[in-house]
Amino acid sequence: MTEAVQTHQIALMSATGLIYRTVSSEKARDCTPDEIPIIDVARLWGSLEDRKELAREVLHACENTGFFYIKNHGITNSSITKVLDRSKEFFYQPEELRQKASRRHAKHLGGYLGRADRAGGSPTGKINTKEVFVMKYDPKFDPTVEDFTKIPEEVNEGLHAEEFYWQATQHIDGFQDALVGHWRSCLDLARRLIKIFAIALELPENYFEHLVTYPGADLGVGLYPGWPEGMVAKEAEMGLNAHTDVQCFTLLWQDNHGGLEVLNRESQWVRVKPMDDTLVVNIGDFLMRLTNNRFQSTIHQVVPHDSPEDRMSVAFFFGFNFNEQCSVVPTCITPENPKRYEPVVCGDYVQQRLEAAESFKVPMKG
Ligand SMILES: O=C(O)CCC(=O)C(=O)O
Ligand SMILES: [Fe+2]
């Protein structure tokens, strides 16, 4: 960063605990295609040669900003529209009905997280205005699981699905079907993409396959309240504070309101402009760890958008089976980049990170 540029510090929870980053105070600008490329993933359904070519483009993006758009991903607009329509019915009902699905009733972290539940829980002291409904991986919805009553005990113990959030939303016709339908499409796409990551890392295509049979796979439908005419977000409010995602990678659908920003390699915020018919893919901390920091899990945030309408996004967070222990992959260890991390149990890592991100408050440094 050149000296003339004004900077300030942000605090956030990272894979190594609380960190501070110096960032440019310049206004965010649109991302360039070099920072966040658009990758055509129609080749997922093509030949091995097609997939290798795709893997080269993905590799470049993962080693660069760690964010890319994908097009021709096979997820239909109607799948998204159903999720949005049914979710609006959930979000726009009286608070006491939403609260029946509250995460306060959860053993794990599924269900509804409202604005009030978040107060004070951010490292910057800014409140996230985002409300979110989260469903967790459930083998009974996974088409590749033939008999969900015969799941190995060690897998069962790590599952985080719960019934209460479905019971609390039963009165919304089609809500569960819409979310589960979309979740299934994302799950299929993610299992195809993980093969591309394997190829990109010069591993056999099926290297990660046994790790995604009962994967971490959470769907979060988010609502960011709009700002009626003349009203603006308070200094103390953010859409979603700066963070990194925790699992392997995220598939994000966003509407046209904008607000998502990524910290680029020059520590400047760049806008991830909404783009029709694309999803945004970003690398999470677990995959960064597994790749010995070759792939970038990049800091991002959602700033308040400038519209009286609410913003909506649908994020699918994908990671490995929670009961598996994973080590840095061999192709990412070199004399110049010796092994940085010990093996870790995927579920333990994810749970600790998610809990830490939600349960602390520290003042800004400086
Ligand atoms: O809503 C968005 O655009 C991004 C959401 C996000 O980063 C997250 O939920 O981790
Ligand atoms: Fe995120």
Automatic annotation (TrEMBL):
The keyword Transmembrane does not apply. One of its GO terms (biological process) is small molecule biosynthetic process. One of its GO terms (molecular function) is oxidoreductase activity. Pfam families: 2OG-FeII_Oxy (PF03171), DIOX_N (PF14226). Residues 215-320 form the Fe2OG dioxygenase domain. PANTHER family: 2-OXOGLUTARATE (2OG) AND FE(II)-DEPENDENT OXYGENASE SUPERFAMILY PROTEIN-RELATED. Belongs to the iron/ascorbate-dependent oxidoreductase family. This is Fe2OG dioxygenase domain-containing protein. It comes from Penicillium brasilianum.
